[in-house]
Amino acid sequence: QLFMVLLHQGQTYSATAIGQLASQHLGGSIITSNKPIAVTVKDDLMDAFHLGGCRDIGGDQLLSYDHLGTQYVAMRGSYPANLDRLFIVGTENSTSIQINGNFVTNIDKYQTYSYQFGNNEVAYIESSSPVTLVHLIGKNCNFEYSILNPLDCIGTDTVVFKREPNKQFQILFFFNQT
């Protein structure tokens, strides 16, 4: 379904999923603009039924196509090994995905591949075309997702990160020891 929203400087627009099933969310939506915009995705009631009914909020600012890449690194968090996940979203048809040097699948434009970390603590992702990576990570009953930056991203002044004051903040680091 195609529709247009006209925004003036400083205005926002919010779209909402029509239901709680993944198929009822906005994944695969295409957003175009003739002026610079920021797009934030959020889910205000992610359900971790496998953690005893825990629910949490997640969200992040999307990267534009020109900021996507073909090489990413992600680390498993403190969840049990089978709960942290990566969601890899294709931008072109027949995109080949390799994780830790092993071919795992081909995905098409707007298609999502879900990767479970299992016992692997680090995932090195390579793709034949640019992809978006969403990382679901957590500890205990708290979980979050974030959009990962590609390895060749040296920073940008158009994507903003803000930390809430007086809140616990953890960063996982990966060091290449060659």
How would you summarize this macromolecular structure in one to three sentences?
With 178 residues, this protein is mainly beta. The protein contains no helices and 9 strands.
Please supply descriptive tags for the structure shown above.
178 residues, mainly beta, 7-stranded antiparallel beta sheet, two-stranded antiparallel ribbon, 9 strands, 39% strand, disordered C terminus
Task: Describe how the helices and strands are arranged.
Layout: E1 40-48, E2 54-61, E3 69-75, E4 85-90, E5 95-99, E6 102-107, E7 112-116, E8 122-139, E9 142-147
Antiparallel strand pairs: 1-2, 3-8, 4-7, 4-8, 5-6, 5-8, 8-9
What does this 3D model show about the protein?
- The chain is an all-beta fold and 178 residues long.
- The protein has strands at 40-48, 54-61, 69-75, 85-90, 95-99, 102-107, 112-116, 122-139, 142-147.
- Strands 3, 4, 5, 6, 7, 8 and 9 form a seven-stranded antiparallel β-sheet that branches. The protein has a two-stranded antiparallel sheet with strand order 1-2.
- A hairpin with a 2-residue loop joins β8 (122-139) and β9.
- The protein starts with 39 loop residues before the first strand and ends in a 31-residue tail after the last strand.
Shape: globular
Secondary-structure class: mainly beta
Percent in helix: under 10%
Fraction in beta strands: 35-45%
Q: pLDDT average, as an integer? A: 76
Uncertain runs: 173-178
Radius of gyration: 17 Å
Q: Secondary-structure element order, as H and E?
A: EEEEEEEEE
Q: N- to C-terminal separation?
A: 50 Å
What is the number of beta strands? 9
Figure out the total of helices.
Answer: 0
How is the main sheet built? 7 strands, antiparallel
